[in-house]
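S1.2 Input.
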Amino acid sequence: MDNNLTSEPKSNGVKKGGARIIVDDDDEDLSPTDLSEMLAEGTKEAHDRAENCQFVKDFLRGRIIRELFKRGTTALYFVYSAMEEEIEKNKDHAHIAPIYFPTELHRREALARDLEYFYGEDWENQIRLSAGTKPYVDRIHEVGKEDPVLLVAHSYTRYMGDLSGGQILKKVAQRALKLPRTGEGLNFYQFEGITSHRGFKQLYRSRINELELDMETKQRIVDESNRTFGFNMMVFSELEGIGNTVKEEVQEEGFGHSHAEVIQDDINKCPYYAAKMAASGNPTYALHLAQRCLGVPPCQVALAWPGFVSLCRALQPGTFCKAQKNRHLPLS
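S1.3 Output.
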């Protein structure tokens, strides 16, 4: 991937500071041994397992209650506090410095504002580190102290997910919980230092691909990323269990995204999932995905319908529409 410094480049999504970097849109330069490609390929199964957690599926349908959202925000606060503390300690490390973007990415302060909105000024005395979140936090501190290169896995998995599928959750939560359109309670999802999510993700992937790492270390990072998915699933499972006992009426499904809105967001934010749904024979997803990828009107898609569905079924989900390196589960 060719990165060129210039005074008038195409935006990389970073709003402030430093020379901009042009990120070539041509994916042909990527190699299967690039870390971003290894992470995409090596975490497919973990991505699928996490994607199919009941908590995530319910969330995407708008079936999220305020108490669970508050507790989920609390879990994220402890996770990001740990991760950003360790990133800060290791910001001069050879493998952390290139992906050190505190202004653009760090979430701790945003989460603190969200917790103050939900719990009030005394929020710090009302939250606690849960049993389901503690192993995740402990692991982050462990790698930060003993093996900082593995922070690459934690940073990549979390932040890239937040910039991708996490944006779907923002819209669902705002509608389901009737949160203010001015953004209170949803600061976590607002990346004010980034003007283009897509451009910044390209920049971030190019940075991790340029890290000087041997294959053994790259594989350890992939393994740690899979472990990170596991920690997130522990948090989801805990929240699901709490949801079964909380004495509060579950929001009607209609408070979530409309069906059409969810489909469009699935395609825009997580094309891997949309392609998989199309490949399973879901006609609505296949139609919208065809329009998105082929850039033709619905009537033309309908004429080519049988061939398009066959193509979806023939392709591996991770390769359709170059989705495998861009896909990210909404872990947030």
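S1.4 Remarks. The chain has a mean pLDDT of 78.
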